[in-house]
Every structure is written in structure tokens, then in C-alpha cells.
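Work Package 3 (structural annotation) set out to generate three-dimensional models for the target panel prioritized at the project kickoff. During this period the team completed the workflow that converts sequence records into C-alpha cells, so that structures can be stored uniformly alongside our sequence database. As a representative example, we reproduce one entry of 159 residues exactly as it appears in the project archive.
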Amino acid sequence: MSKGFLRGAGGLLVTTGVDWSTKLWAPGYTDAPLMSFLSNSYDYMSDVQWSPVHPSVFATASSNGTVNIWNLAASLDQPISGTEGISIDEFSGADSATASSSSRQGLNRLKWSADGRRMAVASGDKMHVLGVGEDVWKTKGDEEGKVMNNLLSRGLIQE
């Protein structure tokens, strides 16, 4: 495990590491991870950060140069950024259609802005600032409750 951050009243924790996965934990319920989100490309995950404003959203950075954004209130299965993620090549001027995953520069770190509308992503000696849509930073009701209901309905936690 390389990163973790407690989130909200549910006490959820996300970690990431070189095993190609991001894990969701609920230490108040169990000592084992609730679920693992695996990298489609089998590249290691280098960072994970919860959104500072949206209680069910987190982002991951990968060694293959992609960012994935997850909203656990919307889905426990698919990132809202799409299964391929967001390639930093698209923002650095590289032609993402011709850039192979092996030629992409890996991401080292990511950090949300305080208002959750932007994200800084470090890649080698470069920093990229990504704007995110309103669906990422604006909450829609009781997001923590939706996450807990999703986890309960899957039998991942017990009341």
C-alpha cells in the first residue's frame, strides 16, 4: 500500500500500490479490503486521492499515463472517466491515437484543487492541470448514503 485517506462518516479508505490495484477499505467494518479496482492495462497505480468536495469521488494515477475518476455513488464497477481512463497525452499535445501505452510517460502524483474543479497531475518533469466537469465536483444529494447503500446491497458490509 502506498497511499490512503479516511473519508467521511463511513470511514472509507482507498489505497493503491504496485499490485495494479486500488483497494477500498472500511476499517470500522472489516480488516480486509471491501473491493479492488484493477488496472485494465496491468500498469501499477501510483497515486489515489479523494475529491475534497465530493464524498464519493476519487481519482487514480497510473504508470501508463492515465487518470481514472470514480464515483462510488454512481457505480462500484466502472470509473466515470471511462474504462480507458483519461490519457495525459491528450493534454500534452501528443497524438493519443498513435501513442502506445509503452511510450506514455507514467504519472507520479495527483492533487485536487480545493474547490474540486481541477486536478494537478505530475508526470516526470511536467505538471498537467486538468479541468473536471460539474458531474465530478457537484454533489447530487446524499452521496455517502448512496455509497453505503451500494456496499450494503452487494453484501460488502453489514449493518
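The two ends are 27 Å apart (CA to CA).
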